[in-house]
Amino acid sequence: MSSFIFLLCKRLHRFRFPYLLAAFLVAAVLTAALLYQGYVNALSSQFRGRLTHPTIPGAIMARQLPGVQPPVVVNAQPLLKLHIWDINTRHGNLQIAGVASTTLADWPLPQPGEVWLPESLKGQVFDEEVGDTIALTHLGNQGRSTATARVAGYYADGGFLNPLLVSQAWVASWLDEEAGSIILAYPEAALNELRRWEGNNEKAELIRQNDVVQNATNLVGSIYAGGQGVILLGVVFLALGLGILAMLVFLDSRGEFAVLKALGLRPRTVGRLLWAEFAVTVAVGLGIGWVILLLTARQVGFPLAIDTHLFRYGLLLVAIAYLVALVAPARLARVALVNELMLGRPILLWKQIIGKPVERHPAFHDLLEQGLTCLKLERDGQGFRGAILQAVGARVKQGEPLAFLPVWFGMGEKHYVAPHDGILRVVDPGRGVIGIAPIQKGGEKNEQGNTENRKSI
Amino acid sequence: MSKEILRTVNLFKAFHLGETIYAVNDVNITLKAGTLNVIVGPSGSGKSTLLSLLGGLDRPISGDIILDGQSYAALSEDELAMLRRRKLGYVFQFFNLIPHLTALENVMLPMQFIGMSHRAAKERATMLMEKVGLEKRLRHLPLQLSGGEQQRVAIARALANQPALVLADEPTGNLDTQNRDEIVALFKQLNEEDGQTFVMITHDPSMRHHAHQVFEMIDGKVTAVDNG
Ligand SMILES: Nc1ncnc2c1ncn2[C@@H]1O[C@H](COP(=O)(O)OP(=O)(O)O)[C@@H](O)[C@H]1O
Ligand SMILES: [Mg+2]
Asked: Which atom of ligand 1 is nearest to the CA of B16?
């Protein structure tokens, strides 16, 4: 057994709370995303392709409130006249329903079991489907009366769909009552005359079928887009959550990783331990999620369309979240030095070697004049805040460290190194400069061995 | 004179917390094979920092360490890890055993890292556990062992791959008197009988007395090299 597998098993065996959280986070996000997708898929597959009948024959609807003169349209007859009432449905909730009083020529009734909805509105659920019988309660002048009627379809009114009821024998008596409003459906040809009517009557209103369909389409589109957004958000949260948990495990394991590294475990192997642990955790989470999904699908009775394609989609999302989440903790585990881990020191992530002298600089003009090579040190209001490693007079070799400056809370370091061999002539943290004199040609040999004062500070 | 095992060259390590602390300031020391070397000095003088540089647990700002002819500066972190597993052993003040591995597994671990077979590793680990007097504690987890026992396991682990050098940072600092004496005796025995090279930080007078070389550190500098 390789020591990697051995360590992995031992680490997993020593249970850590973040593992459990990570597994359930994966399960929760996977289940939520797949259930949502399955639900939407199921709805659209149920309605797709069968829902082509227009709810109202006619392009324009004119809403006529009580007390308003009906529109005068010369070149077109209303295709449908709807009396709008409030009705009680069998679910007890109040809805607005229209009762058609004109003959429903060109208005095929749905066959039993058939569902009619405009294609653009797929995904919406109604209490009553087309073809259902509705029990109506009507409170009129003659008191309370009840009747039943069939739902012939729906008419769209400002983005909402209301049931359109088929006229039956009992409707005749109701039509004597003043309706809440009357809707007249006209063909497109009546548009100009209807506009004039709308202009003259404050309480008149035109609803164009095209606008309604457009609104409905937008609405449905945004529901779908929102759904995608919810899933994407889920993945982002999953990545964040997994990342935080992996970081917790890393922090919790610092001491152990320090010892493993001290004993000679390779840096990348330590990083891989974390990757592998969370791969196992995520796999467990996927398993839990799958079980929850199956149980839920069985419980709801609703035919959830969870197919393998969908599951693969879920896997992809979780995989992306996993990759994003583990990058930082695994990298930290890999690059951290033993002492940084063991003593809880900040982990050095980057080192910048600065060895390029300034060519021209107004502040160092005098030094450059003297023929010194100038290394510019980063400074704040009080000058250079890092450590100077060499003193004036020191003999330095090209590439030798002269100063260093921790930045970013110790996560980064700037190392200033000698651009060439030479002797330090100026070390001025206040001005933020180190000046190096090149070694005189010929004198080089003689000065060799004179290294006692190197680096003495 | 025996052969040189480790040498430092102008070793520097500084920390920067508002002001700069030169924890290791231009240290040049040499360790000989088979010797017991002791670093003494007041708290905060840089002993631990120096020891972790020697052990390749941290990187100096400048300077180099040469172990058995190999320069640390020339090594990548990966190569340094390989060097640590083959040539170095560590004993820490707080034992630092892996808590979810048994005593035997802890000792076997470095051997598994160098690709030794499970059987051979187990055999050698058992032998080492006998050597440190813990043959009856093989299957115990670290938390089921006393401090002195844990430190013995750590010593056995440090010896796993026959390292050129064992480093110990106050190995008796966290033990009671009796355990301290036993661990000190164990170190002496390993040095005398097996010729194991040690460098350790300790305040123990008898260890100091026994040492071949005593380095005294003050403010990051090695000020006295006492060749006993
Ligand atoms: N990570 C660190 N950050 C800042 N200063 C440190 C750090 N580690 C050690 N030091 C400082 O370096 C000096 C030497 O520390 P150390 O090597 O632990 O001393 P010793 O082991 O001799 O007691 C001390 O002044 C300590 O405060
Ligand atoms: Mg110390």
From this structure: 4
pTM: 0.73
B58-81 tens-digit pLDDT:
999 889 999 999 999 999 999 999
Nearest CA in chain B to A455: B26
CA distances from A28 to A31, A77, A140 (A): 5, 58, 53
Nearest residue to A239 (alpha-carbon basis) of A22, A6, A403, A429: A22
pLDDT tens readout for residues A115-151: 333 333 333 334 455 566 655 555 555 555 565 666 6
Give the residue extent of every domain in chain A: 2-47+225-343, 60-217, 350-443
pLDDT band at A338 (very low <50, low <70, confident <90, very high): very high
Task: Show which of residues 75-114 on chain B sit within 8 Å of chain A, judged by CB atoms.
Answer: 77-78, 81-86, 88, 90, 96-101, 105, 109-110, 112-114
CA-closest candidate to residue A444, choices A412, A425, A422, A427: A422
Query: Span A350-443: which CATH code?
Result: 2.40.50
Q: How confident is the model at residue A280 (pLDDT cuts 50, 70, 90)?
A: very high
Task: Give residue B214's pLDDT.
Answer: 95
Q: Between chains, do B113 and A10 touch, taking CB under 8 Å as contact? A: no
The CATH number for B128's domain is 3.40.50.300
| Number of other CB atoms surrounding residue A341 within 10 Å | 26
pLDDT band at A317 (very low <50, low <70, confident <90, very high): confident
Q: Which atom of ligand 1 is nearest to the CA of B51?
A: 17
Q: How far apart are the first and last CA of chain A?
A: 53
CB of B23 closer than 6 angstroms to any ligand 1 atom: yes
Query: pLDDT value at position B60?
Result: 92
Cα–Cα distance, B168 to B157 (Å, whole number) = 12
Q: Ligand 1 in contact with B21 (CB < 6 A)?
A: yes
